Amino acid sequence: MNNKSVLLSRKIFLRGTGVALAMPWFETFAADGSGGDETPKRFVSIYHPDGVGLPLKSDPAWKDWSWFPQGGETDFELTKVLEVLEPLRSDITIYSGLSHPAVRKVHGHSNADQYLTGAATGGHGLYKNSISLDQVYAEHAGKYTRHSSLVMSTNGGVGGPRGAQTQSFNREGRPIPAMNKPKQLFNTLFVTSSKDAAARLARSKSALDLLIDNTRSLRRQLSGHDQETLKQYIDAVRDTEVKLTKAQKWIDTPTPVVDTGNLHLDAEPKEARLYFQTMYELIYLAFLSDSTRVATFQLGRENGEGPHDLLSMAVGLGGAHGLTHEVKKPDGWKNLGTYNRYQAEEFGRFAQRLKDTPEPNGNGNMLDNTFAMHGSASSSFHLSRNYPIISAGGKNLGFTNGRYLKFGQGNEDNQAGAGIVTDAGWRGKIEAEELPLAQLFVTILQRLGVETDSFAGYSGTLNRV
Amino acid sequence: MNTKSPMKTLNITILLVLGSASIVLAAEDQQNPATLEMARESGRTKSRFLKKTQADTTATSAIPTANVAYFQKSVGPILNKSCLACHGPETSEGRLRIDELNPDLLTGADVGQWREIYNVLSNSEMPPEDEPDYALADSDRGNIVDWLSDELNKASVIRRSNKEHSSFRRLTKYEYNYALQDLLRLPYALADNLPPETASADGFKNSSELLQMSTMQFETYREIGLKALRRATVSGERPKPVTYIISMQDQMNKAVSGNEDKTFDRNDESYSKNRKRQHLFDRETGKGIHFSSGKSTPQPDAVVEQSPAVSPVVLAVPRNNELKLNLDRFLPDEGIMRVRIRAGRSTMNADEYASLRLVFSAHTSNNANFSQVVSERDIPVTASADDPQFIHFDIPLGDIQRNPFRKLTTTFPRRDEFLHIRNVSNAGGGDEALQVHIDYIEISAPFYQQWPPKIHTDIFVDSDRSDERIYGREVLTRFLRRVWRRPVASQQVDQFMTLFAEYRPGFSSFEDAMLEVLATALATPEFLYLTQRAASGAAATSDTISELELASRLSIFLWSSIPDSELLTLAEQRKLREPEILSAQINRMLADRRSRRFSQNFVQQWLGMDGLNSVVHVTDDSLKEAMQEEPIAFFDEVLRRNLSIIDFIHSDFAMVNERLARHYGIPGVHGPHFRNVSIQPQTKRGGLLTCAAVLTMNSDGKDSHPLKRGVWMLERILHDPPPPPPPNVPEVDLTDPEILKMTLKERIADHRNKPACLSCHSRIDPWGIAFEEYDAVGTYRTRIKNQAVDATSQLFNSQTLAGIDGLKRYLLTDRQDQLARAMVHKMTAYALGRPLSFGDHADIDSLTTQFRTQGDRLGDLVHLIISSNIFNAR
Asked: For chain B, which domains are there?
């Protein structure tokens, strides 16, 4: 069909990684002109709970350990928290002044649920969420790949209402369970057993045949006008058949072969560095093999406990959640900053890996075709405003990096809510004006090729991005 | 088609008449009947429909011809005299040239304009009243209207056969849900995953043109079907239920043990204070102790559905208090949780009511919590505490928000789940205020009345199972008949048996394989669509639908669901069309509780009640719920008592519950249920126009919104929708200090006087301004800020509408025909599930004549529609 697929059907050895990836390829989607053979556009979102360190300017720790950069759009200086990203400076953008308006006065602990959805999930009572950004894109891009998306978190599962352990929610607003074991992820991606799936598909196929037959006999008895109406139904059945055929092709296509020699598939959160790096590596491999173009990864859960609190052991610190409460203790800001720095470092390592890999089936490197987000739904202690967000990559999608973009008004130096350590803070009056994060989401979706001008009820894109 | 009303020509501009209002007003007062009741009577005598002879309305079989001769002789000359000055060669207001219209409505191209002329003349909107030189004598007006009416009917009959719209359509989301519920006897919502429907220009969600089918939708039907079938059926042995028994005697023993000092006695001085908090209480000894939450673990050997002797120890639950029960982590994932509560009232004072509500919650970690009302409705406690009775709730555990951590092996996040039993009551605060006394609670899940459950044996009938091929046919034949609403031919069963044979090896049990086959039947178009087959053979020329199709159309109309066995059997026997049988069936269906769905869905769509969902300025949930309910309850009352639809404009009763009665200032209404209450004129209620829901959803959040209210009147009640606004409407400039100084009414007048806005607003605004006596939540008012309410407006025909009374008076006196025809039109469109077009004009006219002749009764209208040709035609 085209030359690129020929290129891809051989083994690609990736020097320096030690991972050999043999990628089968088929031309399912090239034929219908649906864009499956274009350079993949990818989206990944990393979420970390508990926000970041935001000391007051008057605090001696401000200069080194305040999360946000200091300075202007291009001449900004990274503090010690984010300086690990300096080598990637021209590939990243840092945002301030963005948040989801519906929950600005809700406790930060309740808000991992809505970071990618923008829903009014509230603080108590009846709970209702809506579709997350990644899933909107997965509905669009999922048809090109074996997996429409990859949903991961350190704690796994769905968590509880207002205590999500997944970043992904479907169109009905229901949580999509996250996988948290590297081995399980690896098996899903590269060792799929398809016996059940094949049987299910065969059954569906027969059912659809019967429905078409049955519909034909009804159709003959209808007026011309009504036959036209029924045609929609027949088209829907036929479309479903096409989907089944595609699914069948995936089942018939062997999964990519990955040399697991350098992968630590048994890594656990208590071996935080190894675990983190393995999880990131799996996203990388999933993207490289074009097994999916969409991934979310939640580091821990709000309010700590479980695997979450083990992550900070990587930098020799105690429970991760506790760090946010102890900022006023000696070295408090530094400790929280060190943990955030470590998160940024791992994100940077992942971004660098994408950058170092030429796009297998298209232009530039993989990072240029990937929009990678890293952020949290609170900034200062439990405060659901001014989300600390970094993005990396996306050059070929139209993103211009190397910038610190401040949005909104009245909080240019990120001091609103800085230094708070009590609940009075997150309940406090909203003094600064912030823009809806959903507008950034609209920009992202549009650049990923989704035709939309609104997200979660907010319309319009974000200027300057 | 996205124009609001295809037949409407928008280019007839009606003159806005300014000035001379006071003179008209004075003259009007003289003629105006004293009361609204008298206005109603005098209005009826003006009906054109009541003057018609039968011959006028029934289309004869002869091929109709245009009566151009009468036009030349009588109609044309009058039109020239009264209309030509403004709608002729000199001036052509609204771009209408009366002298250029083709008087042959049957073959000519000007039917649309003639319909508009017919409307403005029969509604006395033209000629303008302040143009005495062109006034139209009543007899002349009558002649033109009669001629036009005949010609329009003939033209409509000719167009009847070239159908623009068909009733062939898929079921709506809510119909599909009810159909599945009724088919499988599953009492809970099944179709929430389907996308919502779009409403037609008429507001109807069952309109064939808009009911699309997408791939996503088709796939969702398949998922829902299989899931519902799995829930309706069981396998294996009867599961042992998890049962909690909470006896208040036990709770009291535990609570008091070691806490003697915390108990109190009914003879204590402080008793009345203690009584106001929730407490355990021994009715015999008078001893009590405060109690708010309990913990219970399942009892392995408990027997369910027991009725132990009534205990003197009760939990006394004051108004708005609740018992919070920690049920730990043992409730099963799926199945019905039956909650039985033995409860009674501490006093039987008729002014007070109490009811129970269930809430389910969990608090998994700090700030990660949820709670959800899980009982479908509050159940009133009616028994006396001396003789308490069981109340039960059935909660589908698989459908409610559960604690996702309940199966953790570690203890954090927390795994327990809570059931709250809440007393929702209007009890006062006195020493004897009504409380609910509960002595015994039993919670059991999964709960089965019998094993296997009836809903299972409805599908997998009790029969000889020795040969799966024979038994399979039996199961399928029964199931397909109900799904397809018709008898099933043997070869159609074959198709499904072939599928079954293919599936069977992949499943360990007959039932599991068969469920997949049955799910396929639930995805067939004959289940998802309302079919109307073209006739074949001898009946090929008939355009009448079959009796089986009539049964489906009927049940979808009155039950929003598929026919039951009785209806189906009558249709199979071809008896359904026999007039007495049909009439008896309609009455049976209306008496069935499923007909409540008709009241609800028709009213919500007809009146556009979805608008209330987006209202955020009503923060009291019980008020908002009552607002939602009122129009439905009102319609239901008029339907069940077969009252006149003129009651929708004004009635001497209101349908209210306690919350709404308080909102309206109606005294003496206690309890949450809706009931018929007689009202006085000064209450300023009665009918649908002044329902709080209507007034509230047509407000902007802070104040009334006359424009919205006017548009609503025209669209929903008068069926005379205004054209959509032109593309470049100037916004009202709220930064202009001059405009800010104006009252709302003045602002509207200012806007209306701009040429681009004039033509439409002069038709809309007066209707809305007449409602200015009601604020943004529908409360009656006489002042707005510091000024007296000015709710007087003038229609474009110089009719003055003085507030709500004036509006009602005018509608009752001069617009009864329009109201009745609008009602017939709306309900017929809903009954047919398709938009009506000009081809239906004659049928609607004929139905309206019968309807008016019989006294405008709502129940009669249902019968008339169902018996009509249009309802029985393809």
From this structure: 21-31+62-160 (no CATH), 242-445 (2.60.120.260), 600-814 (no CATH)
Q: Would an 8 Å CB–CB cutoff place A308 in contact with chain B? A: no
* Residues A249 and A259 both lie in one domain: no
Domain count across chain A: 2
The pLDDT of residue B4 is above 50: no
Find the CB nearest A229 among B168, B519, B534: B168
Same domain? For A127 and A214 the reply is no
- Domain boundary among the residues A220, A253, A286 is at A253
Residue range A277-322, pLDDT digits in tens = 999 999 999 999 999 999 999 998 887 767 777 788 888 888 888 8
- Same domain flag for A310 and A396: yes
How much is the ipTM here?
A: 0.85
Is position A465 within any domain? Answer: no
Are B728 and B756 in contact by the 8 Å Cβ rule? The answer is yes
Sign of the C-alpha dihedral, residues B443, B449, B455, B460?
A: positive
- DSSP 3-state of A297: strand
Q: Residue B25's pLDDT is what? A: 40
SS3 at position B762: helix
> What's the CATH code of the domain at A431?
3.40.720
Domain membership flag for residue A202: yes
Domain membership of residue A215 as a residue range:
193-253
| Residues B658-693: tens digit of each pLDDT | 999 999 999 999 999 999 999 999 999 999 999 999
Average pLDDT, chain A: 88
CA distance A160 to chain B (A): 6
Q: Where does residue B68 rank: exposed (0-12), middle (13-18), buried (19+ CB within 10 A)?
A: middle
Cβ distance of A161 and B369 shorter than 8 Å:
yes
Verify that A155 and A266 share a domain, yes or no: yes
Across the interface, whether the CB atoms of B499 and A207 are under 8 A apart is answered yes
Q: What does the angle CA B619 – CA B624 – CA B627 come to, to the nearest 5 degrees? A: 150
Co-location of A182 and A92 in the same domain:
yes
CB of B152 closer than 8 Å to CB of B115: yes
Residues of B in contact with A163 (CB under 8 A): 364-365, 367-368, 413
CB B822 within 8 A of CB B856: no
Average pLDDT, chain B: 90
CB spacing of A214 vs B525 below 8 angstroms: yes
Mutate to test the interface with A, among B192, B227, B357, B366 (most CBs of A within 10 A): B366
Cβ contact B217–A162 (<8 Å) = no
A-chain CB neighbours of B407 within 8 Å are none
Minimal Cα–Cα distance from B471 to chain A, Å? 21
Angle, alpha carbons A46-A52-A55 (nearest 5°) = 160
One domain, residues A269 and A327: yes
Same-domain status, A386 and A422: yes
The C-alpha atoms of residue A98 and residue A95 are separated, in whole angstroms, by 7
**Closest Cα partner for A136 from A457, A452, A460?**
A452
**CB of A221 within 8 Å of any CB in chain B?**
yes
Higher-confidence residue of B32 and B167: namely B167
- The pLDDT, as a whole number, for residue B132 is 80
Specify if A112 maps to a domain: yes
Return the structure tokens found at B614: 């987006």
Task: Determine the 3-state secondary structure of A122 from DSSP.
Answer: coil
Q: At a CB cut-off of 8 Å and minimum separation 6, what does B30 contact?
A: none
Hey, which residues 229-268 in chain A have their CB within 8 Å of chain B?
229-230, 232-233, 235-237, 239-240, 243
A234 and A309 together in one domain: no
pLDDT band at residue B540 under the 50/70/90 scheme: low
> For the residues of B356-405, what is the DSSP string, one character each?
EEEEEEEEEETTEEEEEE-SSS-EE--SBTTS-EEEEEEEETTTS---TT
